[in-house]
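in:
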């Protein structure tokens, strides 16, 4: 049976307080646990008026306390912003809060513009160049294992120590991330929703071909994260999808903004080129009735050889997002 997980980005909706998006994420995690989803991941973005989840490790702590069974993870921690030891300490604390339920998803992208990345860490560009070494050190620290021989910080440990450790994932949209994941023998998630699937087949092929078995993961473990939306009817899903499609159109013009309501978008006058772009977006979108979306997800899983898919959903209203996850859980038989 296909396993489903969740990525939530704490999206802001026009006319609603941004901080409500954080509380909505916590409530959605509670619901998704009851529905049978395997993991609940949260993202990291900075200086972004749409995606306001800036501190996944803090949000994860709140979700871990609000749930009992679902795995809780980052998708991801943008490692070039941070010292590996500090990230390891944060996730050792999270492991203490929710033993056996923590996923540490790592990314190399800034999750922001260049100026914001510089404000977060003036050495971010250099740290990005040293990404594999930083991943190596982070894996050692967060797993309570020794660093490589001769490391200048070989005597440092990340506390609190315990028998368990977070499951480490590499997230990405390029061959580079897939190769890093393969080298370290850790699971890999391709962000299908960012590229609309472009590059996914090649990245997964590289990951599997070059995989070096690790003690925790003797076999490669890959998944996809897709954007999908289910509603009671196909026409209703198409109406709700206009919020996402409109955001993509304005983003491509360099105009980032909170998610707009479908009723507001209905009054918007698009250019001819934008109408063509909207048609493209609709054609490639994973939207429809629950049965239609479930069929598409199963087809994707078969095509890419994965047994788990992470689902990201945006809607203007939280109730519509919750309903989409409820419908998908039912259609895929998660319970």
């Amino acid at each position: 049976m296909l396993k489903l997980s969740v990525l939530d980005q704490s999206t802001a909706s026009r006319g609603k307080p941004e901080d409500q998006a954080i509380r909505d994420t916590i409530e959605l995690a509670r619901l998704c646990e009851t529905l049978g989803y395997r993991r609940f991941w949260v993202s990291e973005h900075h200086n972004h008026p749409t995606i306001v989840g800036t501190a996944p490790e803090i949000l994860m702590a709140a979700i871990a306390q609000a749930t009992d069974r679902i795995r809780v993870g980052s998708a991801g921690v943008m490692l070039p912003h941070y010292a590996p030891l500090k990230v390891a300490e944060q996730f050792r604390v999270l492991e203490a809060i929710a033993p056996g339920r923590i996923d540490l998803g790592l990314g190399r992208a800034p999750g922001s513009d260049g100026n914001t990345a510089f404000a977060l860490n003036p050495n971010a560009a250099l740290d990005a160049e040293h990404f594999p070494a930083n991943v190596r050190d982070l894996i050692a620290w967060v797993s309570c294992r020794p660093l490589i021989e001769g490391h200048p910080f070989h005597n440092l440990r990340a506390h609190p120590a315990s028998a368990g450790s977070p499951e480490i994932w590499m997230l990405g949209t390029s061959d580079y991330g897939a190769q890093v994941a393969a080298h370290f023998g850790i699971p890999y998630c391709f962000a299908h929703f960012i590229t609309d699937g472009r590059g996914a087949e090649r990245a997964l092929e590289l990951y599997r071909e070059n995989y070096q078995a690790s003690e925790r993961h003797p076999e490669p473990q890959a998944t996809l994260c897709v954007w999908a939306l289910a509603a009671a009817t196909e026409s209703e899903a198409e109406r709700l999808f206009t919020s996402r499609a409109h955001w993509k159109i304005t983003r491509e013009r360099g105009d980032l903004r909170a998610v707009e309501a479908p009723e507001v978008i209905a009054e918007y006058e698009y250019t001819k080129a934008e109408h063509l772009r909207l048609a493209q977006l609709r054609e490639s979108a994973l939207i429809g009735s629950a049965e239609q979306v479930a069929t598409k997800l199963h087809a994707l899983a078969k095509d890419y050889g994965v047994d788990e898919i992470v689902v990201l959903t945006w809607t203007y209203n939280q109730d519509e997002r919750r309903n989409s996850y409820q419908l998908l859980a039912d259609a895929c038989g998660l319970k």
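note: Residues 3-232+288-331 form a domain with the TIM Barrel fold (CATH 3.20.20.30).
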